Amino acid sequence: MADPHGSCRDDKRSKRLHICLSVDFDAISGYLGTGHDPRNTLADYSAGIFSARVGVPRLLKLFGKYGIGNKVSWFLPGHSIETFPEEAAAIARSGAEIGLHGYSHEGAYAMTLEQEEEVLMRCIEIVVALQGGKLPVGYRAPLYQIRETTVQLLQKNGFLYDSNYSQRASSWMVPSSVPKEPAAGTDEAKNGLLEIPSSWYTEDMTPLGFYPYTPNSQGYVAVDVVERMWWDRFDWLWENECFVDEDGFGSIYPMVWHPESAGRAHVVGMIDRFIGKLVKKMNEAEPGEITFETMETMAKAFKAKKCYNHDGC
Question: In this predicted structure, what is the pLDDT of residue 5?
Fold first, then answer.
């Protein structure tokens, strides 16, 4: 029986948890766009070079160790691809999904609509060339700065999903207009842009990366504290909110990492342990209950199963 206080440890219902690991390869671009500051120095920019030359190879090797290289989603700014073509090519060779992440990590609110569209179209071209003609289907806005025009541009260009929001919109004492899910079987549902959640609690950079002139930058948090937070989220979701009979799909567990911080020796070791624990949990579960998937694979499965078909789930 289920625990009356919410624990479902003894619940024998079918479960499903989709683990979606992702990496934002910001490199130098992080210091050119949303992270630009006139006080940035060559030492600051060198962290972006470390991201490419050291962080990317370490993460690719780690994902390869667990056989999940082709189940990770990498979001690449155009600047990172063109500045570090060898590292970008290595990411593509790993079989990973490659999504867009701006060109120079530009914030949407700092651009005109024309500039935003120009950046998007240029980045599509760059990624298509990197992938030998394959179009990208996923998008993560730099610093999660997404607006209505961004969504419209993504839909216009046939994107499957974006990965930015953490919760519904709201503002102080004033009701907000929150979009409703489109009705099953409608063209809006079939062609709509899916939102794969991301937040500051599902990433490494805020607690483990250091930007000297960014107010919310930390960088000196103990890795065991961050690992425990990530694991507590996974454990709670697995025990309480991944039952297939409740919504026909189960739950998703997304993570966002950056080579600049995740590639540091003390951090990548923790991530190694963390992935190892996820793999152990997957092996202990029933076959197919816990899987590693790219965000593209998960989004397509969601659309095919949950939605949006006339016959339901």
Answer: 40
Residue 94 · residue 131 · CB < 8 Å: no
Residue 133: DSSP 8-state: T
Residue among 282, 298, 284 nearest 250 (CA): 298
Burial 191-210 (b: 16+ CB within 10 A, else e): ebbbbbebeeebbbbbbbbe
pLDDT in tens, 211-265: 777 777 788 899 999 999 999 999 999 999 898 876 678 899 999 999 999 999 9
Mean pLDDT of 145-151: 87
CA R_g for the chain: 20
Say how many C-beta atoms besides its own lie within 10 A of residue 67's C-beta: 10
Residues in the chain: 313
Q: pLDDT tens-digit profile of 84-126?
A: 999 999 999 999 999 999 998 888 888 899 999 999 999 999 9
Spatial CA neighbour of 108 closest among 137, 79, 144: 144
Three state DSSP letters for 87-110: HHHHHHHCCCEEEECCCCCCCHHH
Residues whose CB is less than 8 angstroms from the CB of residue 144 and which lie 6 or more positions away in sequence, other chains included = 164, 165, 166, 198
Dist. CA 248–CA 295, nearest whole Å? 18
Q: How far apart are CA 26 and CA 7, in angstroms?
A: 39
Inform me whether the pLDDT recorded for 169 exceeds 60. no
CA nearest neighbour of 65 among 234, 267, 273, 229: 273
- Per the prediction, the chain carries an average pLDDT of 85
This prediction's pTM: 0.82
Residue 11: other Cβ atoms inside 10 A: 14
- 2 touches 11 (CB < 8 A): yes
**How would you classify residue 2: left for phi > 0, otherwise alpha for psi between -120 and 50, otherwise beta?**
beta
Distances (CA, A) of 39 to 45, 79, 212, 214, 260: 11, 21, 9, 11, 19
